[in-house]
Amino acid sequence: MPGYKILNNKLTEQLLADHLQKSSNPLAQYFPKPSIETVTQEVFNTSVGSEELYINPFKYYTDPTKNLIIITTPIAANNFADLLPHLDKLFPGKQLLLGLDGRGATEQHIVTTYISADKKTVDIFDPKASNAIRFFSGKGGTGTLLLGLLRALNPFPKSTLTFGEVTANYYALGTQSFFDGVSCGYHNVAAILACKELLEDGAITRDNLLAKIKNPVSEATQLLKEKAPKKVDSNFASFVKKAWQDTMMPVANKEQRQLLKFQNYFLGWPYQGTTNQKIIYFVTLRFLFQPIINLIRRPIEFSFNLLSETANFLKNTLINWAPTHLSTQYLRSGLMLLTYAAQGLFKGAYLLLRTFTSPMVNFELLQARKNPQAAREAHPIITESTVSAPLHSSDNVLSDGSNVVALFKEKGVSTAPNNSLSTNDFEDVIGDGFTAIDHPKPVLPGRSRDSQFGATDNLTEKKGSANLEGTVSKPKNV
After folding, report:
1. Same domain, yes or no: 305 and 212
2. Per the record, which residues fall in region Disordered (predicted)?
3. What predicted TM-score, i.e. pTM, was given to this entire model?
4. Which domain holds residue 227?
5. Residue of 33, 41, 408, 417 with fewest CB within 10 Å of its CB?
């Protein structure tokens, strides 16, 4: 599917690692020790002097020219308050840059965080204008969503949060639209790299960060094209191709659309058909009637699909726009809403039209959802990827240092056999989103994991400030 895709933790790690190793350490080939290291459970417990703390492993990069650590693995935001007191023991005297993965308005969201060397200054840069309480606690329903929308329309450029004894500054950049649920990973990668350069010249502020990143989606996209080009397929021709394939081959999956020829999807020649099917094709004169029928119905269907994908292309163009002025940010969000509406309107019109012009297509898809096995036997072109298939996961696909790896068994997600789900399929189905799995809460001494965040219901937010002291208790014996 064309358009920008959500960056998973693995790609975030790889993008940051590749860029940092190339730009900051050009002589890395002469040094046997890699500059990307992993904080394991054992390393963490040894550093903080306790064997009773639970963490998910994460990767980090040590800058060779300054006292800077860049944590390349996104950290769960609801664990940040617990992790913060131990960072001084883990990375003494080091400045830190990292991404925090938390609960956004409608999906998982990621923000960029800077921590000073003494661990007393914490600056959080949000590409949106999110509800900070919801982001760190994970609490909130429809009412919180509406409040988040109002905040996005009238954002506070700066607010404050309290993590135990540390007060953090929460800056809303607004470079990502409230209605953009895709590009936060791109913004995070670009912001981390921009903050690294700003530290060479002085302090990081909201204004100089906005001036530095300029267009974060484009900057991160340039890094991503070498690693995963399918994630950034935003060429208009790709959207036109999708509209064509959705019209001509609505039942076929992605792999089969690459195999089907003109004689199959337009002239009606049987795909992998038997001899009897081929004889019937000629006896019934299908080679005459099928092209005529397609000449009548397909142009009308294609026009609606083309309009829908054109709106989709415009939406992705707006995702790539990162305005810094409030008025242009409002304009972008308004235009994005219009593109969402246009895309849905034209796609709905196509589906309604197809009910009359191609009723058998709807019938086949309906039957495939009710009985996939029978549908595959009757129509070999229908496969599991055409219908709703159960989600699987593979530990081998994700990075060993990713926070997601430790969650599969805990959340009961099954592990797919190697021959049933390829790496690309996994990234397209599961790895593209942060929403598939919740982050576990760390277990500190004297408390169970279930009661770790029992006080989050008492969180309150004041004008321009918030208090997260109720989120966690101080760890014992640490």
Report:
1. no
2. 440-478
3. 0.72
4. 3-233
5. 33
